[in-house]
Amino acid sequence: MKKxxxxxxLVILFHLPVFxxxxxxxxxxxxxxxxxxxxxxxxxYSLSLKQSNxxxxxxxxxxxxxxxxxxxxxxxxTGVVIDAEGDANLHLRTNNQDRIYIKNNGQIGVGTSxxxxxxxTLRQSxxxxxNGMRITNGSGTQHMQLWSGGSGVVIDAEGNANLHLRTNNxxxxFIQNNGQVGIGTNSMGSHQLAVEGSIGAREIKVEASGWxxxxxxxxxxxxxxxxxxxxxxxxxxxxEIPSEEEVTENGVNLGEMNAKLLQKIEELTLYMIDMNKRMxxxxxxxxxxxxxxxxxxxx
Length: 299
Hints:
By secondary structure, the protein is an alpha+beta fold. Helices cover 26% and strands 27% of the residues. The protein is built from four helices and 18 strands. It has helices spanning 2-15, 225-235, 244-250, 254-298; strands at 22-24, 29-31, 35-37, 47-49, 60-63, 70-76, 79-84, 90-94, 97-102, 108-110, 120-122, 133-136, 143-149, 152-157, 163-167, 170-175, 181-183, 193-195. The strands form six sheets. The chain has a four-stranded mixed beta sheet, with no helix packed on it. Strands 15-16-17-18 form a four-stranded mixed beta sheet, with no helix packed on it. The N and C termini lie far apart (187 Å). The relative contact order is 0.03.
């Protein structure tokens, strides 16, 4: 009889459901088992929370001591939501420091909560370059960095990437990875800087490698006007000056052309000086002839 009762008790104990083991030390309630709230399918998660099937804000809520601010976690039709309710700011921290800070008015700080009146503020590391913001393309082969260093503010297209600054999906400033720059164009040819359109400036300074004052040197061989005339008749342009066809095809080197134009002006000045000397001589001779004529008439 006793054996029958003992066996019956053992069967009952083996068939009793096994409940999680909780420990209560008076200030905290702990368990080493996985816990589900509103759900029994836990998988490998230590804590699983199933919200209500309808409505928003039915996930998990954390309220501060004064019950004036609360934090909600829930999943709705718009996606997964982390919601700092009321006038609470949202801090995402590691090592007790703000890494992402979202103010209750929508301002965002990354690496800082001192955001002033800026909508978005990024604070880079105190040391080192390239510790600002990095954007990587899909294949991870090209990168865009924005950071501020000892040399100033830097926009860096890393790797072999070209840099495009666009409006209306059109390149306004294009910097090729070899250093060539295009304004309004990305076809620079062999030019270091190419501009599609006009340039307006109060002053343009060209660093010329030479100038045309050699015209005034004593050993300079100035063409005769007859030689210049012959060159014009045969070629249709001044000597040392490119033709219209050459300019249309190759353009004009501004510094070189200014030097050539100055050369022609200086040559023209020499021609005028020579002509002035001849005119003075003719006037002298003319005066002398008049005097002789006057003497003859007086006789």
